[in-house]
Amino acid sequence: MKTFSFAAQDAFAMNANDVIRIGAKPYKLQDHIMLEEENDDAIFSIVKSLVDPCKKYKIAITSGETAILNTIKGLEIGITMTGRIKRESKFSDKTITF
């Protein structure tokens, strides 16, 4: 359906939800876009869809990668989001496992 922006927004929302759910504040993300053929419109649509919420929530886009692979069908959008958690004290021993 060529709704690349919706796919990017969904990826952003799912990552932000996971980070916020554990009590962290998202502060940066990295993206990875794989396409079967060059498609500037799709790439720009995806990146713009990530820039808008990142500006709104003050999340830095620290890196990204675009790969053109003729061995895939369609596209893949991957996002890694990182968050910060405040320690209750410098001696607290909290481990978060996914």
Describe this structure in words.
With 98 residues, the protein is of the alpha+beta class. It has one domain: PurM-like, N-terminal domain (60s Ribosomal Protein L30, Chain: A), CATH 3.30.1330.10. Helices cover 37% and strands 31% of the residues. The protein is built from two helices and three strands; from the N terminus they run αβαββ. A three-stranded mixed sheet has the order 2-1-3, with helices on one face. The protein is elongated.
Topology:
Blueprint: H1 4-21, E1 25-35, H2 40-57, E2 60-68, E3 75-84
Parallel strand pairs: 1-2
Antiparallel strand pairs: 1-3
Helix pairs in contact: 1-2
Low-confidence stretches: none
Structural class: alpha+beta
Architecture per CATH nomenclature, i.e. the level-2 architecture:
2-Layer Sandwich
Tell me the major beta sheet: 3 strands, mixed
Radius of gyration: 16 Å
**Percent helix:** 25-40%
Which strand order spans the largest sheet, edge to edge or round the barrel?
Answer: 2-1-3
Instruction: Identify the CATH homologous superfamily.
Output: PurM-like, N-terminal domain
What is the number of beta strands? 3
In terms of quaternary structure, the protein is: single chain
Distance between the termini: 33 Å
Give the strand content: 25-35%
CATH topology: 60s Ribosomal Protein L30, Chain: A
In N-to-C order, the SSE pattern is HEHEE
Q: Give the overall shape.
A: elongated
Q: Estimate nothing, just give the exact number of structural domains.
A: 1
Count the helices. How many? 2
Mean pLDDT: 86
CATH uppermost class: Alpha Beta
